[in-house]
Amino acid sequence: MYYKKPVIGFYLLIVVNLIMYNCSSPDKKIESYHDQDAGLFSKPKDSLPVKGKYLFKSALELAAMIRNHEATSVDIVKEFITNIKNNNYKYNAIVWLREKEALEEAAKADEAIAKGQQLSALHGVPVTVKEEYWIKGSPVTLNSLLHKDFIAPEDGELIKQLKKSGAIILGKTNIPTMLMDFQVQGEIYPPASNPYDTTRTPGGSSGGAAAALAAGFTTIELGSDLGGSIRLPSSFCGLYGLKTTFRSLNITQGDGPGIATKKRRFALNVAGPMARTPEDLEVAWLILRDAKPDTAIQQPINWKKPSERKINQYRLAWIDDWENGSATPKASKDVKEKLNQLIDSLTQHAASVMKTAPDTYNEMMRSYFVCLGLLAGEGLSEEERKSISKNMKPWDDGTGTLTPFYEAIKNPDDSAWTKWLGENKLLKEKWESFFKQYDFLICPITYGPAFKKCPKGTPINIDGKTISYFNYAPYTTILNPIECPSITIPLGLNKDGLPITIQIIGPCFSEPELLYFAKLLQPLTPGFIRPPEL
User: Fold this and answer.
1) Which residue of 52, 109, 119, 207 is surrounded by the most CB atoms within 10 Å?
2) 95 φ, ψ to 5°?
């Protein structure tokens, strides 16, 4: 399928980055694009006092306090900003602070309360967004020197919708260069750290987002996911995150630094919220889904209300090691232990539980990389396409997983794209059949907990085993071609104090039921656990 309107897609950003990197390899780092934000990455000479009354309350709790005159938006926003200024240097989660504007908007929110005006769901509540999203006047660098001068000329549609909800946007969160890593490392901003252990990564690419939530810098975050960028950071920081159904949210207006393109292909990438509670995740999703649609790629959706069933009325499938031949993706001892505890609890509550999964893992992985190659190579010369293949090598673990990408980008013509659409349609139909038998599939997100920060591509040692860098997150990219939504569920901490999280996958457009089920699971799961030192 082709779209008449030019699309600004994530895949184009990959293309531009990889081509230009072949010509130039900048090695000079700068702390921050804006001088006024450089202090965010340094320990302050004098920390300001923070009572911590509001920092780890949920967005809905804060909204209720503001509405009921138990707190002012100004006081809440001030406390969050002070906490960021005092402690962001530990994690480098926030990269652009919107202090003046946020305080002005908070004051207006309090004025509206005093006047008895009608209030929106997040009236006066502080939130943050991933660096790639457009906020008028903000840098959109993708943590790359190639885009260091780009300033968003307007608000993107999802940002407009957050503001319409009454939310106060505090600033933007850290990302890896061009959003392409399991960690947050780049050319402009310092590396981000995990609040549970600062020697470890908070994940990527929405890693700064996850760190900000876990550190009490924000209540809700707007992330994105092309191959795990919401789910992996949510997993490493013990959060709730929602990878939405493809095409259900507007991501083409204000996504990335606005590179003009005539590309007509669009796939894989989605926007979605992250939060510390399923209720906050739900309210954020309800707000975002009502953003003005991009009619070039979105159609009206008839969202169904959740069923309001009890746990014993659900048919659930689950998997830990996903059998698919010699390259079976596995889960660590910690993940299996927590996952089995959840399955035992569901069984005790009389849910119908079966250990099974569609026999499509290899097909999904192949489909993902064929699609990525066809997206990346569209309209480029042979020399440019060879350059992209060369720059994909750091991800290559020698198992042949990237072979479909290399083959697809060699000849990414329209006939190859049409062929992929047809093959992927059959793959999606297999999952549609699976979801007629089961409501959801429960499975891991990553092999194990957050790993130590390291150069991209470094093998990871865990449980006495060596896992290739790419295969540490084997259950993420596979979902993007089939377009299904997935919600992350935190299952507590391991013996090292690191979060362990799983995902629950539903059929396309099942977000209302997934969110309802996540709330239903709260008595059976620990939920977000605040880092011990915070």
Assistant:
1) 207
2) -115, -10
Cβ-proximal residues to 522 (8 Å cutoff; 6+ apart), any chain: 278
Distances (CA, A) of 230 to 134, 150, 242, 410: 18, 24, 7, 30
Count other Cβ atoms within 10 Å, centred on residue 295. 11
The residue type of 515 is L
Q: Which residues contact 146 (CB under 8 A, 6 or more apart)?
A: 16, 17, 20
How far is Cα 363 from Cα 404, in angstroms, rounded to an integer?
Answer: 11
DSSP class of 299:
-
- Single-letter amino acid, residue 138: S
Structure tokens at 435: 């979801």
* Torsion 43-48-53-59 (CA) sign: negative
Q: Token digits for 67? A: 């509405």
Cβ atoms 140, 151 nearer than 8 A: yes
- Residue 468: DSSP 8-state: -
Torsion-angle region of 175 (φ positive above 0: left; ψ -120 to 50: alpha; else: beta): beta
Longest CA pairwise span in the chain (Å): 66
Integer distance in angstroms from the first to the last C-alpha of the chain? 49
Spatial separation of the C-alpha atoms in residues 214 and 208, rounded to whole Å:
10
Walk me through the domains of the chain, giving residue ranges and CATH numbers: 10-18+74-299+309-524 (3.90.1300.10)
Check if the beta carbon of residue 266 is closer than 8 Å to that of residue 9. Answer: yes
**How many residues comprise the chain?**
534
| pLDDT by position in tens, the chain (length 534) | 323 333 334 444 444 454 444 433 333 344 444 554 668 999 999 988 999 999 999 999 999 999 999 999 999 999 999 999 999 999 999 999 999 999 999 999 999 999 999 999 999 999 999 999 999 999 999 999 999 999 999 999 999 999 999 999 999 999 999 999 999 999 999 999 999 999 999 999 999 999 999 999 999 999 999 999 999 999 999 999 999 999 999 987 666 786 545 568 889 999 999 999 999 999 999 999 999 999 888 999 999 999 999 999 999 999 999 987 766 888 999 999 999 999 999 999 999 999 999 999 999 999 999 999 999 999 999 999 999 999 888 888 888 999 999 999 999 999 999 999 999 999 999 999 999 999 999 999 999 999 999 999 999 999 889 999 989 999 999 999 999 999 999 999 999 999 999 999 999 999 999 999 999 999 999 999 999 989
479 vs 203, 273, 360, 449, 475, CA distance in Å?
Answer: 18, 17, 11, 20, 7
The three-state secondary structure class of 282 is: helix
Written as one letter, the residue type at 389 is S
d(CA 363, CA 25): 35
